[in-house]
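Why does residue order matter? Because the sequence determines the fold. Keep that principle in mind as you read this record.
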Amino acid sequence: MTTTQPLPQCWQDLADILAAGIDRALLFGPPGTGKTYAGLTMKPAHQPSYRLICTDEMSTAEISGLWQPNGDRFTYNEGLAVKAWRDGARLVIDEINRANGDIMSLLLAFTDTVASSSWQNPQTGEIVTPAAGFSVVLTMNGEPDDLEPALLDRFAARVKITEPHPDALATLPEYLRAPARALGARNDSQRASLRAFQVLEQLAAVHGLERALALVMPQHAEAFTDALAVAQLEQ
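Structure:
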């Protein structure tokens, strides 16, 4: 991802980390600031990306793979982490703090240093290791101290994301960008995420902005109006 907009400091920190060739980074902070978006796009254009979302019900199949019926026999379908290794891809692991014990143990193996990483396909016996370029970005809405020390040791580069990325804001109509930036950077009850603005955009296109505000963020309506007024004055 490239941007022509000035980067807020938190995003500049991440850009500097990635530019130095660091291939393990942890993004934490409030939801709806574009952490996943950045993880998937702040990379070389040719590099593929894969996304894992950690949940309480998550299984190892999503990470390493599973046996599935194929006609009269079973074949092993590799999971996203293995595919990311094979492709030298960017692997984004969302909500890492929600991974349970068994899943965390597997993720520790797939996020270890390249020199220490290997996995064996149970069907073919092939030993798979990370291809050149493989990198991992973890995201979470909590604090790093919530994570296991072994995982934190793998992700020494950590950035607290405090406001939306300019390129994520650019996916909104221009008139919504300044309010989204202003409200997304707040740390009080008036904060509104990018997801809220995406819904607001859809509703406003059909029902108008006033009705959309009443439906999506009535508690933010006054703050939104103030942010919009400031943006208009700055133009």
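The longest helix spans residues 194-207.
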